[in-house]
């Protein structure tokens, strides 16, 4: 990441001094290398790096942990719904196992497990 890109990303009211900006720029380069150019992952890591420089670390970690837990719970609920839909839709012939797996973005063995096979 170039300094001008970081400056544009941070905006004018970032609250960092020049040393912190240099540190964040170095972290941005590390992040870019580690994330293999996945822009969403890179953004999340850069936001976390910035927040750790400008907010209490405990607050940042707690908020990130809460987000992860909430996402895990949502995934469990979505999978429960997908399982029930598989049972109903495959049972009445609306989908094949493979077709349902593709539509639901799960593997076929997961669908078979849901069907008790």
Could you characterize the architecture of this molecule?
With 117 residues, this protein is mainly α. It has helices spanning 3-10, 18-34, 39-54, 57-91, 97-104, 108-114. α2 (18-34) runs antiparallel to α3. The chain has six helices and no strands. The longest helix has 35 residues, at 57-91. The relative contact order is 0.07. The protein is elongated and about 65 Å long.
**Distance linking N and C termini:** 51 Å
Helix share bin: over 70%
What profile does the largest beta sheet have? none
Oligomer: single chain
Mean pLDDT: 94
SSE arrangement, N to C: HHHHHH
Question: Which regions are unreliable across 5 or more consecutive residues at pLDDT < 50?
Answer: none
Say how many strands there are. 0
Structural class: mainly alpha
Strand content: under 5%
What is shown here, in short?
It contains 6 helices and no strands. It has 117 residues and is mainly alpha-helical.
Secondary-structure blueprint:
Layout: H1 3-10, H2 18-34, H3 39-54, H4 57-91, H5 97-104, H6 108-114
Helix pairs in contact: 2-3, 5-6
Q: Tags for this entry?
A:
117 residues; mainly alpha; 6 helices
